[in-house]
Design the sequence.
């Protein structure tokens, strides 16, 4: 037996043919064309010349039939054995060929159809689903384990066996199931079927968590889900229906030693298939649990296939993490202890609760109130974020101030004694421990203070700094600086003394996921792995930063919960810039209305004076505005003011649990729909089209005057923006629901909605001020923004239209 890795050159092929020229028969099973086997043509020529019976099988290629030398009936029989798969069919294939083409009288069975899905247990190989389920203890959490049918078929289950036994040792029931996750072949069941029929029943999930080694995404339409069965959105996929945490365990194709030596951990195609794509399902990303190693040649056949062998400490870690996630569904809320960790950058009282785009203190208060409403043991709730911060800063913090040693315990949630820390530190991975000592020296002979405030069973605390006596901005993302002893003491205390059932790292972002270690697929030497260990980690992260969000998912085993960006709106103009805009508008109208000559001249002088006073030469792209012809100057001023007005600015911070409403919601939706999405234009592009405005030109040449529109394109942009706002306001007045349809249709017919219907006189020029409507929708928007003359049409009405 040989595999591709055994045949690197023609010399290897010749050696192989030398060995098999006296064989009863030879089978060449290629996964591809002739090129997929090194030296294929050479081997076939020699074997044919030697008269060795030859079976060639490949995927749909005629050359396999042409090069096969056994009888057609025997070829088809051999194909049946190969296609049925599994060790038992390969063994019977060998017996069949030996009987037919040698003087061997071997008993063999017909090809056996092996199940393409089933349950499995290493200690009960033939167990049935109902039998395995009946053996479970209802008081224990149950972990589902997903793995490939091909691994079961080829007895490649060492890593599954190790994982099942570790999960059971950690106190869980285990329900391992194999299948081809994305198959749509008749007679085969996929991961969706397993989830709905074995991992759950009519009453809900039967498992409390799932460990999956499947590659790709199970919820993306590209993975075997027909377009007509895609559902309207990702919320309808079966993983959402199952509703339990799914932990992604990686079966790397590299050897265990190569994985350990690698700085990157998981890379290349494995990073895409086993990490990036499963992230679309919301899986908790972990690390490799197995590596591929060549087996011993116990049968003395000259080679041995590579199979997956468990990485023992990684199997242990995934098992503990999965059980802790699963326990959360069994543990009553009133018994759960949760740590809410606020970030502290820079490390001072002013930096407590810093998070990009988020009001962390108020969000924490809302989170505490939600815990209370859901039955967690919460007490003495702060009235607001300010009170929360006052309580935190009245305790020991990272601010530079002197505290008497005898007051440290009184001003802390707890302190960790040097002896207790030494015991915890000794349990850390040897490699990690050595690196911390190399960086920071031996553990200091002093207690370690734990900051924070306890609100019943919910601890609100502050993440420790990455270093001491250093520039915080330089060490925050330093990928080489090991965490100090205080950092390890903090997370060890959360796990061992506070006995947290889960931790929430609130906001974007902390320092845990930036600590040294493998890039993806952490091992025991990696600092984040040693710190978060087996704690379920929930990480609220800003929705528009997926790059750093994936860092949190992959390097702190986080379940990311996105929070909204702050409300954005167009900046508009103000003060002197607003005055300049008005002057330019009046100058344009003076020219259009055949006004007195001196009126236009006065406006010209005032515009030039305003530009000089505001020192806009650089902003207008010139060294000296006097070098510009005045009409060119006016055009550049229009372009500059358009850039200023359309710049998106934040309207405060987002607070979790408080979605934007009213005018803030309108502004937010207008901002979110500025750009196009796949299959749909942006809102402003659609409005511009209806109003007869060249959208691309409006964006690229805002300082140009459009004769047909009778205005500068910057003014047209104002009209488009104002109309977009009014459309969203009108939709908001309908509570964002489809209005009652004017068309006849059944209740199951699809509903389409037209948001904008404007009557435009086809004989008129397409200027916005030429459009007219049969009904005006009065705006509830603030009157602070002036509506320019020649304002665009209002929407006539909403139509709900049904189509069969």
Sequence:
């Amino acid at each position: 037996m040989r595999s591709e890795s055994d045949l690197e050159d023609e010399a290897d092929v010749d050696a192989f043919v030398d060995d098999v020229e006296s064989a009863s028969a030879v089978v060449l099973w290629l996964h591809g064309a002739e090129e997929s086997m090194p030296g294929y043509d050479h081997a076939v020529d020699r074997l044919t010349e030697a008269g060795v019976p030859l079976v060639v099988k490949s995927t749909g290629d005629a050359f396999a039939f042409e090069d096969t030398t056994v009888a057609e009936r025997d070829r088809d029989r051999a194909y049946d054995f190969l296609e049925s798969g599994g060790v038992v069919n390969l063994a019977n294939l060998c017996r069949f060929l030996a009987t037919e083409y040698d003087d061997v009288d071997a008993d063999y069975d017909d090809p056996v159809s092996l199940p393409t899905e089933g349950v499995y247990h290493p200690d009960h190989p033939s167990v049935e689903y109902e039998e395995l389920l009946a053996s479970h203890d209802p008081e224990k959490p149950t972990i589902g384990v997903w793995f490939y049918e091909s691994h079961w078929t080829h007895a490649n289950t060492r890593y599954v066996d190790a994982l099942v036994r570790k999960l059971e040792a950690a106190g869980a029931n285990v329900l391992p199931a194999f299948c081809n996750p994305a198959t749509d072949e008749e007679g085969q069941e996929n991961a969706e079927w397993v989830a709905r029929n074995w991992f759950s029943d009519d009453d809900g999930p039967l498992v409390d968590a799932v460990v999956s080694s499947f590659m790709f995404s199970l919820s993306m339409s590209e993975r075997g889900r027909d377009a007509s069965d895609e559902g309207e959105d990702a919320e309808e996929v079966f993983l959402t229906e199952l509703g339990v945490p799914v932990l992604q365990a990686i079966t790397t194709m590299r050897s265990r030693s190569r994985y350990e030596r690698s700085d990157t951990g998981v890379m290349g195609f494995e990073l895409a298939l086993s990490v990036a794509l499963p992230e679309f399902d919301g899986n908790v990303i972990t690390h490799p649990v197995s590596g591929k190693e060549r087996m011993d040649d116990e049968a003395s056949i000259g080679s041995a296939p590579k199979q997956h062998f468990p990485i023992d400490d990684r199997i242990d870690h995934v098992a503990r993490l999965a059980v802790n996630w699963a326990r959360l569904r069994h543990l009553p809320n009133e018994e759960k202890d949760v740590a809410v960790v606020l970030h502290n950058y820079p490390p001072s009282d002013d930096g407590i609760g810093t998070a990009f785009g988020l009001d962390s203190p108020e969000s924490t208060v809302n989170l505490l109130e939600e815990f209370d409403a859901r039955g967690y043991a919460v007490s003495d709730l702060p009235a607001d974020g300010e009170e929360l911060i006052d309580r935190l800063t009245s305790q020991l913090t990272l601010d530079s101030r002197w505290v008497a040693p005898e007051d440290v315990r009184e001003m802390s949630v707890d302190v960790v004694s040097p002896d207790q820390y030494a015991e915890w530190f000794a349990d850390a991975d040897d490699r990690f421990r050595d690196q911390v000592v190399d960086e920071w020296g031996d553990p200091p002979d002093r207690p370690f203070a734990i900051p924070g405030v306890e609100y019943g069973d919910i601890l609100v605390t502050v993440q420790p700094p990455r270093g001491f006596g250093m520039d915080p901005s330089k060490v925050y993302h330093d990928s080489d600086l090991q965490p100090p002893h205080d950092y390890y003491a903090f997370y060890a205390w959360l796990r061992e003394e506070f006995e947290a059932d889960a931790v929430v790292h609130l906001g974007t972002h902390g320092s845990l996921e930036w600590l040294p270690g493998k890039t993806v697929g952490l091992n025991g030497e990696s600092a984040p792995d040693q710190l978060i260990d087996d704690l379920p980690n929930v990480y609220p992260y800003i929705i528009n930063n997926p790059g750093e969000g994936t860092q949190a998912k992959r390097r702190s085993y986080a379940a990311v919960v996105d929070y909204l960006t702050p409300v954005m709106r167009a900046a508009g103009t103000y003060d002197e810039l607003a005055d300049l805009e008005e002057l330019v508008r009046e100058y344009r109208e003076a020219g259009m209305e055949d006004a007195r000559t001196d009126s236009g001249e006065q406006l010209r002088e005032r515009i030039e004076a305003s530009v000089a006073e505001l020192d806009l030469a650089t902003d207008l792209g010139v060294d000296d505005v006097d070098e510009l012809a005045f009409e060119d100057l006016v055009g550049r001023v229009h372009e500059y003011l358009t850039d200023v007005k359309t710049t998106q600015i934040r309207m405060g911070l987002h607070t979790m649990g408080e979605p934007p409403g009213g005018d803030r919601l309108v502004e937010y939706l207008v901002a979110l729909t500025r750009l196009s999405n796949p299959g749909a234009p942006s809102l402003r592009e659609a409005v511009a089209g209806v109003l007869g405005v060249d959208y691309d030109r409006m964006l690229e040449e805002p300082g140009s005057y459009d004769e047909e529109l009778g205005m500068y394109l910057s003014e047209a942009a104002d009209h488009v923006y104002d109309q977009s706002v009014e459309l969203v306001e009108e939709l908001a007045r309908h509570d964002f629901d489809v209005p009652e349809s004017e068309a006849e249709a059944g209740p199951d017919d699809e509903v389409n909605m037209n948001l904008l219907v404007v009557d435009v006189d086809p004989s008129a020029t397409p200027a916005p001020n030429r459009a007219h409507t049969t009904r005006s929708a009065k705006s509830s928007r603030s009157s602070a923004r002036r509506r320019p003359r020649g304002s665009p049409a209002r929407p006539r009405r909403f139509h709900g239209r049904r189509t069969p």
Notes: The chain is about 40% helix and 15% strand. The radius of gyration is 35 Å. The mean pLDDT is 84. The longest strand covers residues 284-294.
